[in-house]
Amino acid sequence: MTNSKSKTTSAAVALLMILAIIVGLLALPAEKQAATAQNTQETYAFIGATPNPVGVNQEVLLHIGITAQLNIVGDSYYGLSVTIERPDGEIDKIENIQTDATGGTGRNYVPTMEGNYTLQTHFPAQWYNYTDYWGATVSNWMEASDSPELTLVVQADPIPYYPGHALPTEYWTRPINAQFQEWAGIAGNWLKPAGSYTMPPIPKYHPFNDDAPETAHILWTKQLIQGGLVGGELGEVQYEMGDAYEGFFLGSVIINGVLYYNKYNSDGGSDVQQDVYAVDLKTGEELWVKNYNNSRLSFGQIFFWDSYNYHASFDYLWIVSGSTWHAFDALTGRWEYSMTNVPSGWNLYGEKGEIYRYTVDLSNRWITLWNSSRVGSTMGSWGSAVAGETFDASDGIEWNVTISDSLPGSVCHYFLNDKIFGSTAGGMGNMDEIVTNWAISVKPGEEGRVVFKKDWTRPAGNMTTVWTDASPEDGIFILSIKENLRYYGFSLENGNFLWEGEPENYLAQYDKWYGPAYGYGMFYTGRQSGIVTCYNITTGKTLWKYEVKDKYAEILWSNNFPIGFHFLADGKIYLSYMEHSPINPTGRGAPFVCLDAYTGEEIWTLDWFGNFWGGHAMIGDSVIVGHNGYDGRIYAIGKGPSATTVSALPKMSVEGDKVLVEGMVTDISPGTEEYALTARFPQGVPAVSDANMSDWMEYVHMQKERPADVVGVEVVISVLDPNNNCYEVARATSDESGYFGCTFEPEVPGLYTIVASFEGSKSYYGSFAETFINVESAPQPTPVPTPVPQAPVETYFTVSTVLIIVAIAIVAFLLLRRR
User: Fold this and answer.
1) Could you read off the pLDDT of 81-101 as tens digits, one per residue?
2) How far is CA 57 from the centre of its chain?
3) Hey, where are the domains in the chain?
4) What is the pLDDT of residues 365-388, one digit of tens each?
5) If you ran DSSP here, which 8-state letter would residue 704 be given?
6) Spelled out in words, what is the top-level CATH class assigned to the domain 183-637?
7) Backbone Cα Rg of the chain
8) C-beta separation of 113 from 103 below 8 A
């Protein structure tokens, strides 16, 4: 009975408590009811400003948020705001701020007046819901908060920023200190395989390498294949040069100052030895040689992994075997990881170096985009987490969409995250009178939409329309007609016809495939005609022409050498003799040419037979490297180091005497250390003027005749005198042996430091040397004694005579007196 009453009483108390809770909940707002039933979290807003203090009109980074981090990467808080009270009492606001998972984020602010600003962050109350590690749903009611007020001091004078680093004036190498951000423009990589004609064509315009070679100065050479003249029983014929289709230099890339190339040609498959070489780009030093199961290097990649936890670039050498890709560390050649089931297509590089591939099926009207950075991304930070793994590349498909309309012809060009262009004139062209050009959008959110599908009626006649090239920077695509020798420009935005070029030389009929290049708002043609024609790419107006003359009638079917464009960089265009299937022996005297890309002015030439199918010349870190078909060697061209020596005689001299200064300026580029050159130039290879550089390099490295009238380089002679005054005393120009000499007269006695300085040129970095002399004071002249005055001879005789007469007279007088 007692127990029953106790149970009844307990139940009643429990019921009353439940009712009280319910009544309490009913009295709260709806959103607060849920929070009370779950979690309520007090928040602490913050505001930071960097830099503080700051100058007027200088940018300030505001750090805005609350101290509670979110639990899931990618989650955010919303609706934050900042109020900024200016010195004049006006209020600036930054609103609708979304944080990242740290609970904070950044915004830029530029103060426009001097004085103190008051800043404050405002965090609005909101729910934060997430699923925890165990799968449970967690709901937090984050209460509103305001940060403490922050005073931003704005002063009239700007605060200093990091001063930066000047571009190098001395010989430089990799690695480049990461603080030298200003050097980015002179450093560059070449990741796509050299000389492989793929679609889209390998871009010939390279915006980096801002110090592209302005002379033909050779840094080093290295034998790639058996090359040059055979002689003997076979006489004048030469060894193979790689054309056509041998691919000796094909697949070469440049990464971080290292040239990677395949040693042997592409024939023979996996049963024939295929080695990959790594060579220092500046010195030609062989770093390593690897054999990857007799597979060839395909292309390179530098990928910037920019995640929450890790930010770094990774460089890879890729070897492709069918749909399987193998990545190797560029520094060591070590295998890193592999991908299987990579879709077919053409490599496009994203802003962070990720490799994309579009797959287009016009028949079934669909497109996919594959992204290499999605493959294996679930493993965590890129690089170390994937080492030794093999991944299925199928999960790299980023999207698959339907094309909105049926399209004829074939794909001609891909533009990442913009459009895919196609035409019935694609491939090797067609003879239809109506040419249909089209573009499919692949912009985010517009994938698969047909941008334009437009017919163009070509000029009448039995003519072939050929797809030529496209410039996304200029919004132009170009078609050409083989028979009338003209190019035609169209808009990449809507397909409208824009311009018709003037007719070119009849040999231009062969220029339509793989021939042209573009950059700097211009379009360059040439190839078989050997006539470089530069057009304004947006108007079709001819700007200039340059003929690569065959001066000695070596090419019997043309007055010019057939050419191919290698690349554009630093406002220059580089091209050379390239012939699809040259006879043997080949035409002599063919040049590698550097032209001003804007004017067509010749800057320099060098005796070099470029390789059409075997791999073009490339540029990296402002050094040109490529295969010379005349001798089978790899050549590296760029600015090299120099050395200066100096001596002065006499070492000990007297004030008023002249001093003879003499010395030598030599080229100490890596290639000059080869025995072939040290035997010919035991005192060193002389440094010569830029004007003589091409002929001199052909003499030094190609064993051509020694050029006449070679001029050396100017040397400035300066002194630091005994009074610590520094000044120039003479200038001299070295001769063709590298020697220089001059004289000067020291101004005051004492110890002199004599400095001979070669300030450098377009071919060489500068150098200097010092020596010392001592100048004694001139001895004081010995005083001449004052001579004693003497009477003249006549006076002497007269006086003597008088005295004698007087004496005789006295004697006579005395004698007479005695008498």
Assistant:
1) 999 999 999 999 999 999 999
2) 32
3) 1-37, 38-155, 183-637, 642-776
4) 999 999 999 998 655 444 444 578
5) P
6) mainly beta
7) 42
8) no
